[in-house]
Amino acid sequence: MASSNAATISKIASVAASAMLVRSIVNDFLPPHFHHFLLSRFCNIFSRFSSRLSMVVEEYNEFAVNRLYEAAEVYLSTRISPSNTRLKVGKQDREKGFLVTMDRGEEIVDVFDGFKITWRFVRTETEKRVPNSHGGSSMKENRYFELSFDKIHRDKVLSSYFPHILDRAKAIKDENTPVKIFTLSERYRFGDPNGLWSSVVLDHPSTFETLAMEESQKAAIMKDLKKFMERKQLYRKVGKAWKRGYLLYGPPGTGKSSLIGAMANFLNFDIYDLELTDVRRNSDLRNLLMATSNRSMLVIEDIDCTKELKNREGSGDQAVVPSRWGEFGDKEVTLSGFLNFIDGLWSSCGDERVIVFTTNHKEKLDPALLRPGRMDMHIHMGYCSFSGFRIMASNYLGIHDHPLFVHVKDIMQKLQITPAEIGEVFMRSELDNPTVALQGVIDALQGKEKEKEEEKEKEKEKKEDDEPVEVKESA
Q1: What residues pair up with 99 in beta bridges, in sequence order?
Q2: What is the pTM of this model?
Q3: pLDDT category of residue 227 using cuts at 50, 70 and 90
Q4: pLDDT band with cut points at 50, 70 and 90 for residue 449
Q5: What confidence score (pLDDT) does residue 68 get?
Q6: What is the separation of C-alpha 338 from the centre of its chain, rounded to a whole number of angstroms?
Q7: What number is the average pLDDT over the span 145-153?
Q8: Dihedrals phi, psi of 98, to nearest 5 degrees
Q9: How many Cα atoms occupy the beta-carbon half-sphere of 448 within 13 Å?
């Protein structure tokens, strides 16, 4: 028995020594790309007897970047565990945070729908001939992910797991990409059809939490935006373009631009700021809108200032928007063309689009613009309420209550004052002393109240002066 065990151990030791010798020969005398060849051949032999299936996701498909590879890199960055000991860290200009991914040889185990998938990052180098007179060569780096799982889950990986990775990676990228604001580029202004939009990062601080609006109104807007984002399949089911139109109307200084910033930050959508009077003709408007990206907001501010898009009674659909291009605006932008781009066939060329119009005078707009499908939700931006003032006091002074709030509330019930006016008073105040700052608001409100009374007196006197004087004839 002892001799049999000794013989077995001797054979194992001999095989191990032979394996070490072969490994030493391979590492010392064979080129790196041949290592990969031998490894793949051994893997093929053993895979025939294994219940596991392996798939390779290469960085490139021929000459094009493999979208699944990019998505896997982003997705796996959220699956890194404490057991990973070697990581890569990078950052791109457009990204908000850092991208942390696994380095060569690292493995990540993911769980999807109850089964495990093991990912491994592989990086190899192969010799690439350089076509020149010297017959030189260079090393080409190949990068890919190798995932393995039980063979019985093959169909589920292809039909469900990979689409899940693509969707999650898209959502992660959308969250980490900063919002940009686009405007018509100088190249367009000089007649160049390429590069229609130019952009900068929009670092707008406005959020729904900081907006001086009624809480119920903010909740209604956020609920509507969430429903819009969640109903992609519903829009397709009922045959509608996946877009939503909003009209913000009210006096100047009531926070329309701040609400646009809050909506863009809430959705993480880029903003395309379009001034219609800068557009030469209908065909240019079509090209501009076609050049906007998905997940974006088209903003057309002060639409009431474009007189031909007000009430077009008696003018028909061929009313035109006056162009700044003078004699070069031969066709210009017609109302019918504009409506077709926001609600006609061309409006379907893109997904996740939000269109925002602003106006100070809703009553001046053409009814054709106001109907659902063009301006779906009408949002009134009124004067500052006391609840809005409390939000502003929290933003500027960091307080939620104060004895002087009672005096502010009493005066605000008699006055119409905009959030912009109150914000300017706060900016001129000593913000580190809430009592002094609030007293400054009270003084400003009282001054406004006094101005209002003086205006009433002047109007009364003017009315009395304009009344005809009755002259009685003498007997």
Answers
A1: 90
A2: 0.67
A3: very high
A4: confident
A5: 93
A6: 25
A7: 94
A8: -95, 145
A9: 18
Which class for 25: exposed (0-12), middle (13-18), buried (19 or more C-beta within 10 A)? exposed
- 3-class SS letters over 306-344: CHHHECCCCCCCCCEECCCCHHHCCCEEEHHHHHHHHHC
Q: Both tokens of residue 347? A: 């409006």
CA distance 292 to 298: 8
Tokens of 245: 């139109």
Residue type at 444 in one-letter notation: A
Cβ-contact 247, 359 below 8 angstroms? yes
Report in angstroms the alpha-carbon separations of 154 from 45, 54, 137, 340.
20, 10, 39, 47
* Euclidean distance between CA atoms 89 and 98, whole angstroms: 7
Contact (Cβ atoms closer than 8 angstroms) between residue 304 and residue 359: yes
Start-to-end CA distance of the chain, whole Å, equals 157
| Cα 392 from Cα 307, distance rounded (Å) | 35
Q: Where are the domains of the chain?
A: 24-176, 180-380, 386-457
Per-residue pLDDT tens digits for 396-423? 999 999 999 999 999 888 888 899 999 9
Q: What is the pLDDT of residues 341-392, one digit of tens each?
A: 777 666 666 778 899 999 999 988 888 888 888 899 999 999 999 999 999 9
Q: Which residues pair with 378 in a beta bridge?
A: 247
What CATH architecture does domain 180-380 belong to? 3-Layer(aba) Sandwich (3.40)
What secondary structure letter does DSSP report for 118? E
204's CB contacts (< 8 A; 6+ apart) are 179, 261, 264, 265
Q: What is the DSSP letter of 365?
A: B
